[in-house]
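Before the break, one more example. Copy the sequence into your notebook; we will annotate it together after we see the structure.
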Amino acid sequence: MSTSHFNPVHSAVHALCSSNPEDPNSGWEYVKSKNGVKIFKKSCPSSPFIIIRAETIMAASVRETFEFLRNLEKVRTLDSALAELKRIEELGAGRSVVYSAVKLPWPASNRDFVCENIEGVAEDHGFCVGHSVQHHACPERKGYVRGHVLASGYLYRALPGDNNQCRMVCVAQVDPKVCIPTKIVNLATLHNSAVVAKIRDALLKEKKRKMAEQHSHSHPTIPRQPLIG
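Here is what the structure looks like once it is written out:
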């Protein structure tokens, strides 16, 4: 899938997803592994907010993963903090504008975000990378502070020799604006990496359900005939 239509921010996010965190020169620092998800963090010279990277193995093909992530309503239901997640405008060539609203516990104010995402899929890999933009259909709302997504993206590649599984990498760097201490923001970003595991588990559950439906259609239950004495 060509990335020639990326702007510099999209290219930077894609590079973050593609980098090898095991490389000592990559700048990534291992944090922990939890529920089958490896988590890394990286400092950014131009921002006090860290970049979080989470990666896991998806028991699904690249195409299945792409189709699942395209369904924003399904993705929204996996995160209880997400009050809204919707596509505002399709811009063509895989580009779209997406709005999200996040409910935060008192006393923090709720946050919302407007991002331009670029997504694409090929036989062996897929991606969705984005960053904050302004959009005429998404003015600032009462009760929400407009946050800024510095970097956000997914990259998933088929495992060598196994097109039914893929490795998914997610990166995120967020500036929520206004008065939330940087340390709290970084901890919250780290916590949000748990959504990667929820996406993985939900996709596996959906795949099993579809397989069960296909099996029931191809092997219909034959009604038992009453015994005649």
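The two ends are 68 Å apart (CA to CA). DSSP finds five helices and ten strands in the chain. Try to locate both features in your own notes.
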